[in-house]
Amino acid sequence: MGQLDGRTALITGGALGIGLAVAQRFAAEGARVILADRNGEGAREAAAAIGENARAVTMDISSEASVAAGFAEAEAAGWAPDVVVANAGVQLFGQDAPIADLELEVWQRTIDVNLTGAFLTVKYAVRTMLALGGGSIILTGSPTAVNGEGKDFTAYSASKAGMHGLGRTVAAAYADRGIRVNTVQPAYTETPLVAAITDDPEARAAIVSRIPIGRAGTPADVAGIMVYLASDDGAFATGATFQVDGGMTSL
Ligand SMILES: NC(=O)c1ccc[n+]([C@@H]2O[C@H](COP(=O)([O-])OP(=O)(O)OC[C@H]3O[C@@H](n4cnc5c(N)ncnc54)[C@H](O)[C@@H]3O)[C@@H](O)[C@H]2O)c1
Fold first, then answer.
1. Ramachandran area for residue 31 (φ above 0: left; ψ -120 to 50: alpha; else beta)
2. Residue 155: CATH number of its domain
3. Contact 214/208 with Cβ under 8 angstroms?
4. 176 CA → ligand 1 middle, Å
5. What is the rounded CA–CA span in Å between residue 228 and residue 76?
6. Is 251 helix (H, G, I), strand (E, B) or coil?
7. Could you tell me the CA-to-CA distances from 62 to 118, 120, 154, 165, 234 in Å, in that order?
8. Which residues are catalytic?
9. Residue 89 CB less than 6 A away from ligand 1
């Protein structure tokens, strides 16, 4: 028996990286999974590789029309999600910068996806879950939201701080209606997002040297805690932040 038998999960950013690992693990635990990504082709290929319990939806989380259409498509197919992972995000390496050097356009593009995108994903997730009588929402946050980790990434760090605040606010507003909202806070996790670090041996060694467990995170490291939060094991967890970072921010 899987820990997520009977659940239906929608995962934004499901075509790659952390979102893909979460989709694969949720499916292995018995859930039906919807891979929602602006890269519709990548999401379709990844869903086909998972099998019959997976479907893809092309969704740009920064567009309300696109998010609304994606949820409507899932519901029309009988796949209304009782688990939603608001995970898609961008980090504009080479453009995001300390504030004196940060262009408004770079700030805006980051906020549009990471913060407005989380708002829209969670808004439609809550609407769906109110109709279902409850559910679990999981946000992919970041240590840059809570300390100085992201000093060179002003827009990214601010967008993630907004996400953490959004998670707590929504958790408080809907706790009495069976909707739980939690944030998972990975640190350096090797995915295409951080290729600029992974591909630079010096930068990689510098960041790994700051992780007490002594290695980089993997997408699979993040998936495990999300299974817990999506399942009944996490039934009493809401409004919380779960660090999965090899001790980077807590030791
Ligand atoms: N990798 C890390 O070190 C790390 C650390 C902490 C937090 N995070 C967060 O984890 C999440 C996933 O990151 P990742 O490392 O897997 O990234 P990734 O770049 O490997 O994958 C991100 C996925 O999101 C999709 N996406 C981007 N913009 C989108 C949009 N507007 N609408 C829909 N889909 C969109 C991309 O197409 C891609 O499939 C992000 O929110 C990121 O900020 C990552």
1. beta
2. 3.40.50.720
3. yes
4. 31
5. 28
6. coil
7. 8, 7, 19, 18, 29
8. 156
9. yes
Structure tokens at 243: 């660090």
Tell me the C-alpha distance between 92 and 98, whole Å. Answer: 13
CB 144 within 8 A of CB 91: no
Q: Give the Å distance between the CA of 71 and the centre of ligand 1.
A: 19
Ligand 1 centre to CA of 108 (Å) is 17
Residue 189 forms part of a structural domain: yes
Contact 125, 86 (CB under 8 A): yes
* Structural domain of 121: 8-244
* Tokens 């992780």 belong to residue: 211
Residue 140: strand pairing partners: 184
Element (H, E) at 37: strand 32-37
pLDDT in tens, 188-242: 999 999 999 999 999 999 999 999 999 999 999 999 999 999 999 999 999 999 9
Per-residue model confidence (pLDDT) at position 250: 87
In a domain, 40, yes or no: yes
CA 178 to CA 163: how far, in whole Å?
21
Would 220 be classed as within a structural domain? yes
3-state secondary structure of 80: coil
Q: pTM value?
A: 0.98
Asked if residue 3 is part of any domain, the answer here is no
Q: Which residue out of 87, 121, 166, 193 has the highest number of ligand 1 atoms within 8 Å of its CB and is therefore the one to mutate? A: 193
How confident is the model over 136-157, as pLDDT tens digits?
999 999 999 998 889 999 999 9
Is residue 84 within 8 A of residue 138, CB to CB? The reply is yes
For ligand 1, say whether the CB of 12 is within 6 Å of any of its atoms.
yes
